[in-house]
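Sorry to interrupt, but I need a hand with the structure work. I would like you to pick a protein and set down its sequence and fold. Please put the record directly below this note.
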Amino acid sequence: MASVLLDLLLPQRCVACGFPGVQVCGTCLGALPRLRGPRCERCCAPTAWPVRRCLECAGRRLAFARARSAVVYDESVRRLVHAWKDRGLRHLSAAAAVVTAEALEHDGEPLVFVPPDAERRRGRGHHPAAALARELGARWDVPVVSLLTRTSGGARQRGLTLAERRANVRGAFTAARSPPAVVLVDDVYTTGATAHAAASALRRAGARRVEVVTFARAVRGYTVTTQA
């Protein structure tokens, strides 16, 4: 009843095109830029041809085995993610999960989500990564386990350089005892710094293989390849 009343007082509009009715319309959802074509096997960066490592991840010690994402983090996706994370449009978690589940296969490992810092969780009133994990768990029929704890808030990652991002999240997570293989879920993959820090905690807790799944991935054009 409360949601019906809220819809009457504040009619929903698509965050992408403004069409009334839903938070993101089917047309705009279908038009989101899927991450297709040749990619780096390790970090999912677009490449000129398939490679095992690219310049974005070669030479880096990454605690996760591979990262996969559904869409490119372009301006249309940025607007959707902003509305989802910062405007409190929680139903967008389901839309993001639909796109992610359609784009990526899953082999049955339990899902773990990157936890928020307490201050940001209080400010938003919800946690997008956890909501995305739960929606994906329901679609893939796999359990979602809360293993990670954030031990420090740190500055926001947005706007930081790669080196600053790595330093900002170094040691930021601890984990309860982990199953041997898990899939770490987050909303956006930007540089991999957060995913690496969280995966490191899971590895210390017993995980032998950690994969990363995100709804969106920041793309900086074709990444020069290093290994075919």
The chain is about 35% helix and 15% strand. Residues 63 and 200 are 5 Å apart (CA to CA). The radius of gyration is 18 Å. Confidence is low (pLDDT under 50) at residues 1-10, 223-228.
